[in-house]
Automatic annotation (TrEMBL):
Alphabetized UniProt keyword annotations: Hydrolase, Magnesium, Metal-binding
Name this protein carries in UniProt: NUDIX hydrolase
Cofactor(s) needed: Mg(2+)
Tagged with keyword Magnesium: yes
The organism's place on the tree of life at top rank: Bacteria
């Protein structure tokens, strides 16, 4: 059963609330094998996938697609069906904010040479298994390791 995505309405939140983010598993097929794109975080330089906050009036998939553009220069299309989710603590103002990121696949058509966060991040293609070994979050590593582009509609 498919559930139609509706635009999001953003509400105020409290300091102790778990926050939701939308993430992009950006992928392409090269030599008949899937590759996924990782970017570095701005603070620590560790490998991550693009992710960001909900945007009022946008669907979760569109939010993930937008983050892929801003953080990695991805020109592509997000699928409406999520691959899974992972939890992590986002460090803001010196304290950890509990977050859950819902991951959407984004099929990459091309990478722009210039994009909003170009001078703040690096981007690199990996096999799903190598990408899984580079990220810190065990749940995200599982999503990357299990990624199969044939399952995307």
């Amino acid at each position: 059963m498919l559930i139609k995505q509706l635009p999001i309405t953003v509400r105020a939140s409290h300091k102790s609330d778990v926050r939701t983010q939308f993430a992009a598993l950006c992928f392409r097929i090269a030599k008949n094998k899937p590759q996924v794109l990782l970017v570095t975080s701005r603070g620590t330089g560790r490998w991550i996938i693009p992710k960001g906050w909900p945007m009022h009036g946008k669907t979760p998939a569109h939010c993930a697609e937008r983050e892929a553009w801003e953080e990695a220069g991805v020109i592509g299309k997000a699928a409406d069906q999520a691959l899974g989710l992972f939890s992590y603590n986002k460090v803001l103002d010196g304290s950890g904010l509990p977050c859950v990121a819902i991951v959407y696949p984004v099929r990459v058509k091309s990478l722009a040479p210039d994009y909003p966060e170009k001078n703040q991040r690096r981007r690199k293609w990996f096999s799903p298994a190598k990408a899984a070994n580079r990220v810190s979050e065990p749940e995200l590593a599982r999503i990357l390791r299990d990624f199969d582009p044939k399952m995307i509609r």
